[in-house]
């Protein structure tokens, strides 16, 4: 098994990627084409003077180079005329989000902190940082992407919920996480794989699945998530099947039909409790959209069937939600919904009051669920040593509160006044 290969090695922190000419380092002031949708690319081509007649063909060429070949320099686009290449160099870049750190867990899980190019919503000129995690397994490689910087929701057991800075990632920033991960894993045609033996060998795809289980609530950023899924699933580029892309939500009920109709991705719902009083505490969004409303939206979810089941995630919290009667109530509640149940051992983080249920308790819970006819895999915690597991993600970017921003603005105005 891939995960056992280096079980005794210490986790490694690698230096960030070295800027290369025309490659990873953001080209000052120029927008990057990496992560754009087909229509976004077309709009850039039109703006840089390509005629309407040619846009389709040129767009297809760029698409192939960026998303199929993973190139980082315009001069590698050998079938694009020199004149257009020069225009592109002058107006755009192929920059990726910057890799600030790369950590490799003993079990092969990799966590990258990525710094996004600046965005008008970034406070105090601080670029947003997000985390993105790669989990290799024997039969698949899963990339866990973020949809927001931080999260506005405050689930009591989740580390991300304690981060104060929040903004939506753009569709390009979401899709570009796949591009960066492919760069780092040598997962392009002819790419060179890391030599630690923890990433599948060249020939097999290193990234086969994507889950929106990193930072943020994807359904609070639905338009951009839909566009990013479009880029990831495109058959002539990143070619990830929509059935291998899963969007996880804490239960933003009014957005569920839109997700089903527009993204065609698989759905995971973070349930975590079977009674409203407890779920109100664990997932405060439950006060607005209680369990009954959430489960009704799941019953009505577009495209749900036995072949396209909804995954219900259930974090195992010692003495909180892990009793036999919780397990029995869980299967009763889900009756009639094509469902899978994913039991997640709680991943602790500094400062949390929760503990993970003991292993025997998780097994007993899982047995009850299994006997009721549900596959109930217990998700093996991955990358715990580098805080890369579910709910442990939290970047250092912090939001300045409205008051702090006002004080900072006042301070700089004062400073300006003193200087003059
Ligand atoms: N906001 C979305 C997606 C990101 S969280 C959501 O809540 O679904 C991805 C998954 O990790 C969710 O099921 C979430 O409940 C779970 N999670 C959060 N913190 C966790 C922790 N400390 N241990 C285990 N799972 C956790
Ligand atoms: Fe946000 Fe999901 Fe964490 Fe809740 S569990 S705070 S919705 S990221």
Structure, explained:
It is a single chain. With 420 residues, the chain is of the alpha/beta class. It has two domains: 12-16 and 96-418, Aldolase class I (TIM Barrel), CATH 3.20.20.70; 20-91, Orthogonal Bundle (DNA polymerase, domain 1), CATH 1.10.150. 31% of the residues lie in helices and 15% in strands. The protein has eleven helices and twelve strands. The protein has helices spanning 38-47, 52-69, 82-91, 171-185, 222-233, 256-263, 276-282, 291-299, 324-334, 359-371, 402-419; strands at residues 12-14, 98-104, 110-115, 129-137, 140-144, 148-149, 167-168, 209-212, 245-249, 266-270, 310-316, 339-345. Strand 2 (98-104) and strand 3 (110-115) form a beta hairpin. The longest helix has 18 residues, at 52-69. Residues 151, 157-158, 213, 217, 248-250, 270, 313, 315, 344, 346-347, 390-392 line the site of S-adenosyl-L-homocysteine.
């Amino acid at each position: 098994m891939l995960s056992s290969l280096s079980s005794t090695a210490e986790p490694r922190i690698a230096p960030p990627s070295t800027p290369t000419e025309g490659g990873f380092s953001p080209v000052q002031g120029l927008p990057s084409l990496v992560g754009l949708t087909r229509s976004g690319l077309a709009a850039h081509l039109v703006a840089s003077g390509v005629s309407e007649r040619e846009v389709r063909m040129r767009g297809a060429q760029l698409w192939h180079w960026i998303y199929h070949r993973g190139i980082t320099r315009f001069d590698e686009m050998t079938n694009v005329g020199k004149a257009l290449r020069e225009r592109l160099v002058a107006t755009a870049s192929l920059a990726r989000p910057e890799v600030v750190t790369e950590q490799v867990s003993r079990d092969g899980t990799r966590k990258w902190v990525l710094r996004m190019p600046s965005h008008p919503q970034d406070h105090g000129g601080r670029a947003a940082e997000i985390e993105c995690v790669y989990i290799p397994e024997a039969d698949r490689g899963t990339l866990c992407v973020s949809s927001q910087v931080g999260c506005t929701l405050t689930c009591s057991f989740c580390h991300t919920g304690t981060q104060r800075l929040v903004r939506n990632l753009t569709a390009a920033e979401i899709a570009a996480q796949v591009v960066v991960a492919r760069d780092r894993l040598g997962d392009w045609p002819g790419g060179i794989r890391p030599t630690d033996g923890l990433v599948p060998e060249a020939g097999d795809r290193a990234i086969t699945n994507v889950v929106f289980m990193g930072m943020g609530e994807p359904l609070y950023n639905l338009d951009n998530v839909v566009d990013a899924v479009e880029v990831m699933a495109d058959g002539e580029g990143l070619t990830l099947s929509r059935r291998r892309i899963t969007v996880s939500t804490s239960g933003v009920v009014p957005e569920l039909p839109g997700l089903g109709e527009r993204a065609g991705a698989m759905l995971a719902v973070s349930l975590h409790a079977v009674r409203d009083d407890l779920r109100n505490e664990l997932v405060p969004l439950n006060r607005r959209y209680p369990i009954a409303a959430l489960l009704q939206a799941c019953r009505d979810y577009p495209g749900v069937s036995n072949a396209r089941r909804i995954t219900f995630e259930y974090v195992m919290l010692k003495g909180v939600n892990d009793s036999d009667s919780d397990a029995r109530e869980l299967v009763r509640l889900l009756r009639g919904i094509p469902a899978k149940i994913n039991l997640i051992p709680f991943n602790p983080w500094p400062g949390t009051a929760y503990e993970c249920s003991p292993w025997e308790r998780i097994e007993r819970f899982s047995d009850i669920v299994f006997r009721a006819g549900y596959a109930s895999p217990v998700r093996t915690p991955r990358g715990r040593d580098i805080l890369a597991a579910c709910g442990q993600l939290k970047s250092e970017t912090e939001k300045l509160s409205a008051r702090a921003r006002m004080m900072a603005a006042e301070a700089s105005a004062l400073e300006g006044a003193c200087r003059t």
